[in-house]
Design brief:
By secondary structure, the chain is mainly α. It has 2 domains: 93 residues, Rna Polymerase Sigma Factor, Chain: A; 77 residues, Orthogonal Bundle (Arc Repressor Mutant, subunit A), CATH 1.10.10.10. 74% of the residues lie in helices and 0% in strands. The protein is built from 9 helices and no strands. The N and C termini lie far apart (52 Å).
């Protein structure tokens, strides 16, 4: 199947006799990206799946009113992020303390600098990210993993570019400090 542009998908949704088919194409085009966005915030697969369903339900309901002044991806990203934050605030899950359930890291008994493999480094980074407050975690994930520009992030989060830069800078400093502490404890 040749992938259609967002403009073609929106036209198909608005003008065809079968908006379901067009929406199905939109879901197929963006479901993997939305899963990644949500999973980085929620960690748990089942929660991610539930929030992703809610994201696409909201998108279905709002797509007929979608103003094409934003990119379709940006619009979906914003819905996914808002749905994730809503889920986190409703569930009152404290991921900071339960992250060890998801990532088990072996103890190092050697007093030298630990020999870390790529997977362990990723686990430590993920645990560091999970210690951040929600907003900083969102900003860090958007900048670091999704490589979004501050202007795109501003549009998605409805926050000023300056505030986003400050949040990202603070998040990076907190992550560096967390990693420094865990490496010192391991050595």
């Amino acid at each position: 199947m040749i992938e259609k542009s967002d403009k073609e998908l929106l036209e198909l949704f608005q003008k065809s006799g079968d908006p379901n088919q067009a929406f199905d194409l939109i879901v197929r085009k963006y479901q993997r990206k939305m899963y990644q966005v949500i999973r980085r915030l929620l960690v748990d697969h089942d929660d991610t799946h539930d929030v992703m369903q809610n994201t696409f339900i909201k998108a279905w309901k709002g797509l007929s009113n979608f103003r094409e002044d934003a990119q379709l991806y940006t619009w979906l990203y914003r819905i996914a992020t808002n749905e994730s934050l809503t889920f986190l605030s409703k569930s009152k899950k404290n991921i900071q303390h339960s992250i060890d359930e998801y990532f088990e890291v072996s103890d190092h008994t050697d007093s030298s600098v630990p020999d870390l493999n790529g997977e362990e480094i990723q686990h430590r980074l993920q645990r560091a990210i999970e210690t951040l407050p929600e907003k900083q975690r969102v900003v860090f994930n958007m900048k670091y993993y999704d490589e979004l520009k501050y202007e795109e992030m501003s549009e998605i989060l409805d926050t000023s570019v300056g505030a986003l830069k400050a949040s990202y800078h603070i998040a990076v400093k907190k992550i560096e400090e967390y990693l420094r502490q865990t490496l010192n404890q391991a050595s």
